Amino acid sequence: MMTTTVDLQSLEQLCETLYNPPSSDSRIHAESVLNFHFPVFSSLEGASGSDQDGSNGGLDGKLQSHNPNISSPIGSALLCRDLLESSKNPYALMFATSRLKALVDDHFNTFSLPEQSGLRSFVLQHIYQHPDSPQFILASQAQLFGVITKLGWIGNAEFRPLLDHVQVFFQHGLNHRILGIQLLSAVALEMNFTGTKNAATHRKAAVGFRDGQLLPIFKNALSMLQTALQMQQSDNETSKLNIAILSLIKTCLSFDFIGTSYEETSDDVGSIQVPALWRSVFEEPGYLDLLWGCWKSFSSPASVVAMECLSQAASIRRSLFSTDADRHTYIYHIMRETIWTLTTAAGQNKLQDLGNFHEFCRMLSRFKSTYQLAEVCDYKESDQWLAAVSEFTARGFHAWKWSPNSVQYLLMFWNKTVSSLMSAKQETEMFIGALTVDLTRAYLKSRLDCVHAVMDGEVDDPLESEETLLISLEAFANIARTKYVESGQLILTEVRTLSQKYQELIQRASSLAGSSSAPIGSSDLKEQLMVVEMQLTWMVYIIGACIGGRVLYQSTAEQDQMDGTLACEVLGFIHQLQVWTARRSLYLASPDAHLHVQSSIIYFYSRFRESYIGEDAAKAVKVYTQLGDRWGLQTPKDVLDVIVSSSLSNLQTSNDPAWKSQEDQLVVRTLRLYTNLSSGYSSVKYMRKLKSMQDLLRNHNSDDFKFLDPSRRSSDTVVSRSRTVYYTMLSRILFADDNVDADFWRFIRPWEVILNQVMLAFEGKGGLGEAQIRMILLGMFKDLRGFVTSITNRRQFTLFFEWFYPTYTPIVLRAIELWPQDELGIATLRFWHEFATNKSNRVTFDSSSANGILLFRETSNILYTYGRDLLNRPISSESSKWREKYKGIMLYFNIMSVSLSGKYTNFGVFKLYGDKALDRVLEIFFQLMLAIPVADMIAFSKLSVAYYTVLDVFAAEHMMGLPMIPHSVLEYMFRSLGEVVPAHVQDASCSTLACSAIDKICTFVLNWLIKNKIRQDGNGEGQDAVEMIDSDITGSGGIAGGGEASFNGVPSLGPISLLKLQQQHGSSLHWLVEYVLSNKALMSHLFVVLFQVFAFENRNNHWSLSRPLLGLILLNREFYEEYSQNFVQNQLPDRRDHVQVAVAGLMEGVEDNLTMQNRDRFTTNATAFRRECSQLTLMAVPLGDRNEMQ
């Protein structure tokens, strides 16, 4: 038992231990003690506490005990305030600030208006009195001030004159002024942030702040910046002030003015939607003069922030300006300053700074993304401006040495520019077209020069980041295709020159290899070969991007001819490379270079396929004319044959450990190419007819394919899935032909041989050892899983099923029995999960066939065997839960859900004939469920999705058909359903599934009661057949008004009496109906949880959250009446009348049944009610007595 008091020194020591713990146990202890003395009164507090066995059915088990002297959030907040006032320890200050923020976030509406104002004034005063506190504490306290201001903005008018409250900071020294600016920035940033709770209310506060305070703050910042620019001081403190002012301006311009909630990562596209009220600021030339003046005068890093502000200024929305003349003046001002920067020594000197250079490139990109090319070209010096930017871009392409990320902005600028040429004047189009040719030349030179720097170790290799590389290449391709004949000629000349040089170097290496002179490696010949090979790699990437940039309806015959010519050169290089690779010594090769060059070829193939292989291939006559004249490739099928045959060698890896990583990556990329080629309708038909592919189908498990060796391990999950992806692709190609039976049996023949050997080994025959069997089956089940994945129809599945069952299914069960805890067990279950999944209704058998029942019986045997092992499997440590146990349970749940929902098994047969197949699966399912704490079930995302999926499936059909479910299982189910809904997880699928399961349970119970009422009325008992749930409950039947009203022919349920039902039905009373009616507190809790999340949180599944609410209301109507009245009374007095009307509207026109029309009417009312809650800024009301839930 903890003491209720603790001294300041002990508190400071606990806070220091919390943030700087010597061990995890000490941190947990410190956190526990601090939570006791400074409770946050959160329903999630202490979720990982005592309830680890998951057996506690009470719903209050999560709440951690706290100091009995603190009975409310305001009491805890006052203690935090005392700690801030009395301590100087930075850890204690940080803890108190963070805890105050948590209390404010969760319970601000429980504070009275004077308490809200007092807390805000205290925080502001504390910051003012301690300007020398560490910066991280000041930043945290400024954020706390921002949170309080945002939450109280609507309800507390005292919070709104923000500038007046902060003005005292600007009347003192430099440090206080910086703090004042940081406070304004913190409020603006917090107003711009939309959380998951009360998003509509937060947006309303943000709009009020935008309309009332943001513009005055912005103007005030501009005034301070003007003063700072006139002072021309360069000391360190003044620089901090300048940075703070510029950061405030940047924050104001970054505000989400229209509520789009765009991400910061995407702010390089789109314009800033400043309100029309700001028009006067931007139409005054002094605004841009001020920012450009600061950039010219201030040194880095202040100048970098100034350029960030200019980047925002360059993307102000076009429609803001009063007239076209005002907008043109603004545009021309930016262009004029840009020309000065690019053409003067002072401007060039500023761009020598890395930060300035990068932000300047970003400014150019955002400027062009906002304003139209026609507006730019109306400027009298537009040609000079475009030429200057072109020259700067050409130089910028060589900035890969010190600012590689800036090149992307320059490419984006020109990509946007050339995309607008279709609507430009002819002379403009010609001028920009000429510039793109120069840019193509510069880009080619920069990429080729980069190879030398990479070889010398001066820079990182851009080829290593393929994702970033491809984005840049696609932007460059659009630029190069503007004048494609001229630009293509530059590319063609370069690639031919390099190919000739490569051929000469190969000849030299070949001649030296046969002589008695010094080894090749002793000279620089290897380095020369590497340089040229990497340069050709760049050229292949560039040509692939240019070909992939083809737009069908825009491409001309000349452009297609150029594509064909360039493609011929690439194929020539590929032929050179294949010949040289076959005979060169491994010493002359580099694993990284091999990966890069082959990756470029794969990229070229994939881009060529997108543009010239498919349904529109007949329109690409010029390309195939070029390919046919030089290489004899007349059709897309011929090209596909070259692609497949030339890239198959990528799958044939060596045994050199130094090459393993690169070869694994190459296998992944090659399989991705094959998957892409086999995904199109036309291309997969072509692939099926290729001789090389037919050879591969007949010899798919070649020993040369080392990636098929299960002993070849990789920590990269993408690499480890290669063989599964491989057989998924082969299966798709195999089944592309309608007449596939003979080919299928030839394809699976190697598998038959292997599986027959395994079966003999299990019988004690043959020469395979345990380790060999395990490795063979590990690879086999990965292969089979991939193969089954691509099966999409009944005929294909029947072929596989008739081969695999019943001959080889015993191997699956035997593998689970022998190696359940091995990775083989996981691979086996993954295969069976795919095998038992009835996607596209592929698992469909004849009406006279028992295969569906037999398939589930095999599933039952596998799940029962594996489940028993899971139950007895210990967990060595908290960190190994997933690997040792939860991963297997997830797979159990997944297999169970697809089997129960597959629609290929009549489960009533098992009960009819006394077969325990289904009962055993459910028995293990219940035990596995109880073995996992609810907190873990929610915390592990994959496990959570699997669990709530199977729970939803179980509640749909199977739950109600059981004779009984243990109460411990039911308690766990309902508890887990209630706890996942309010959990703040990014994926809403779990809460959606939980709502679906709750709705199905409520629907069953209510429908059962309605049917019972109909039967009783038919027997003449009428209204006497039903009463209220307990003898102390009275009232009329319908909530909306009419006790015995009917809706679309469905009678109103009326009042319900559990005691009466028990007397009438005895043992025939359905156990689920009895359980639900006898646990009204449980249903009350579920209603409150769903109601609060639906009404007050910003979720994207509101429809799903609303569906179970009606059923919960109808099952516990008295509680709903009490709760709704309590909800109204807990609101502020001036809002109660409005809330009363909103609550009454929730059930308006809603009857006592769950017909679809009635559900839809309730959902409409609920949506309107939620809208009212967000507009009125209401407070949630928790369930009164949590102890009754136990």
UniProtKB/TrEMBL annotation:
Q: Where is this region: Disordered?
A: 47-66
Provide one Gene Ontology biological process annotation: protein export from nucleus
Domain Exportin-7/Ran-binding protein 17 TPR repeats residues, every copy: 451-714
Localisation: Cytoplasm; Nucleus
Q: Which InterPro entries match?
A: ARM-like, ARM-type_fold, TPR_XPO7/RBP17, XPO4/7-like
SUPFAM superfamilies xrefs: ARM repeat
Q: Which UniProt keywords apply?
A: Cytoplasm, Nucleus, Protein transport, Transport
Indicate whether Cytoplasm appears among the record's keywords. Answer: yes
* GO molecular function terms noted in the UniProt entry: nuclear export signal receptor activity
Q: Which residues form the signal peptide?
A: none
Q: List, alphabetically, the GO terms of the cellular component aspect.
A: cytoplasm; nuclear pore
The similarity annotation says: Belongs to the exportin family.
Q: What is this protein called?
A: Exportin-7
